[in-house]
Amino acid sequence: xxxxxxxxxxxxxxxxxxxxxxxxxxxxxxxxxxxxxxxxxxxxxxxxxxxxxxxxxxxxxxxxxxxxxxxxxxxxxxxxxxxxxxxxxxxxxxxxxxxxxxxxxxxxxxxxxxxxxxxxxxxxxx
Length: 126
Description:
- By secondary structure, the chain is an all-alpha fold.
- It has helices spanning 2-11, 17-23, 40-50, 58-61, 65-99, 119-125.
- It has six helices and no strands.
- It is elongated, with a radius of gyration of 28 Å.
- The protein has one domain.
- Keywords: Coiled coil.
């Protein structure tokens, strides 16, 4: 929704408050200490990068509503596919991690043959 609204703002007439806020900068005053606050334009640029869209030409794409909408939908579709793929890879890695058998340790009970995995476990077992 934010990117669709961004296209709407760019197509607005000059002098409108939302457009002035998008392109505005701090004229006077001081920035607070610490990390600078993100501007709305910075957040939109981050969203464009996440969707795999070129953040240098987005203003030209917004002039045509249908093209802008198709680009957003196409980018969102690619982003969701990549997200699902990454989640599946993480799931497979977890399954592999859990399915690995434990290696034999040197702490095996001489009486029953149980693998205790630690020295304290061996002493508390006997």
